[in-house]
Amino acid sequence: MANEDTAEFEKKLIVRNTRYEDIEGIIKMNQLGFGNPEIAFKREHFESQLSIFPEGQVCIEYEGEIIGSCSSIIVNFDDYGVNHTFSQIADDGFIRNHNPNGENLYGIEVVVHPDYRHMKIGRRLYEARREICRKFNLKSILFGGRIPNYHNYANRLTAEQYVEQVIKRNLYDPVLTFQLMNDFELIKVMPNYLAKDEASLEYATLMEWKNPEYIADTNQRYQKSLPVRITAVQYNINPISSFEEFAAQCEYYVNASSKIRSDIIVFPEAFTMQLQSYLNEKVPSKQVRQLTSHLDEYKELFSDLAIRYSINIVAGSNFVQKDDSLYHAAFLFHRNGKVDKQYKLHISPYEKKWWGIHPGNELNVFDTDCGKISILLGYDVLFPEAARMAVDRGADILVTPFTAPDKQESLRMKHCAQARAIENQVFVVTAGSTGNLTQVHHMNSQNAQSGIYSPIDYDLSENGVVSECDPNVETMVVGKVDLELLRRNRLNGTVTPLHDRRSDLYQIKTEEAVAKEITVKS
């Protein structure tokens, strides 16, 4: 291309944030750019990226056509370490683990249309990433870069030797050489980074560009290390005669928690069954369906309490009718007025037999003003995969409202919660109910020992118990958890099970990830 043509071409280039209407164009470009449409991001990945972190998604437009794009996420890189995989740090491309309070920008994809390579499109995308890094005052940009020429040398060079030769300019790699020319430095060669990347033999180079304009924000960085105070209500299920009585009982606990400056209060699973003491329905399946008619009252009550008392409320659970199906759902009422919902994923035999509950199909991690929270409702905490998925997506605190008809079930909840805390290096909060409603047909008695649990280590807890109440008494459990200590424990604990997982031997894959193995190029 002649110089005058190049100048005219560059004038027509538009570097901007990606929009939803660009997705189809980016998908088409990616299929060409990767050479294999099976390894490119799909629409659902781009939609998730745009909904979560639109500022981090950039494209280059030329005469109405998308000719380059890149995707990024903000993380605290220390939470993942130098031995992470793409799946772990990018949430398989869905970036639900995006941390707006993080310190690092992580690149998960860069693609240039084949017809426009060697025209500085990639350089412009890298510069756009630098602008994002500066805009958000982030410490650095990192990514795992492919080494697509390595397979040609693998019979005589290790991956580390190959990378060393590329750095010395004795060998050429189209990706690594380009990154080095754009001022990125090698930190480490990572094995098992990118599944199905045959050209790189699943190796990647961990690269970093340090932001010279970064200024440590003392207030922001240290805010995260302040303890989070949590209240778990061991709620007494006693007879009432109106919704107003139920509301008064709930407000009592919210008020008491607010007075001691708790950040989060947790109520038990299905504690709204207390309303049946005056509704008088005798058929179990009709009992829970009758409660759906009080869902609006329930939501109005806890929305008001959360805002009025300035506390985040996990309001146990209630029942939700959706189309012709009944779901069991936990609700999180933020003190800023936002409301989140988590459907129960695993339905117990009792719920299936007597209530006809359907399972939800999506596990959420919610951003709050005191860390990321995921709700494992009752029976869900018995399944380690659910907790692992939540932590991989950034959860700091797992909350388990539960209901138990006997001591055995209560102990299952307690011991599984403690196991989840240890194996995932995460805080777990449980809240159950006590008492009984003898006049309500088919209503079990309640058994509970509620608590707040942590990993077991010197800086956290010598027995894994932050706070725990006596069994089967009406009370509140109050405890402080420190998210900064948790972060340090994940990095430098006596044991680091979250970091030491053998992802080369086993991985948890969601249905959406299994549908297509996602391989991306950065």
UniProtKB/TrEMBL annotation:
What's in the keyword line of the UniProt record? Hydrolase
- PROSITE patterns (UniProt xref): CN_HYDROLASE, GNAT
Q: Which SUPFAM superfamilies match?
A: Acyl-CoA N-acyltransferases (Nat), Carbon-nitrogen hydrolase
Which InterPro entries does the entry mention?
Answer: Acyl_CoA_acyltransferase (IPR016181), C-N_Hydrolase (IPR003010), C-N_Hydrolase_sf (IPR036526), GNAT_dom (IPR000182)
What would be one Pfam family of this protein?
Answer: Acetyltransf_1
Gene Ontology terms, MF aspect: hydrolase activity
> Mind telling me what this protein is named?
Carbon-nitrogen hydrolase
Q: Which organism is it from?
A: Oceanobacillus caeni
- Residue ranges annotated for the N-acetyltransferase domain, each copy included: 13-212
What Gene3D superfamilies would the database entry show?
3.40.630.30, Carbon-nitrogen hydrolase (3.60.110.10)
The residue ranges of the CN hydrolase domain are 228-483
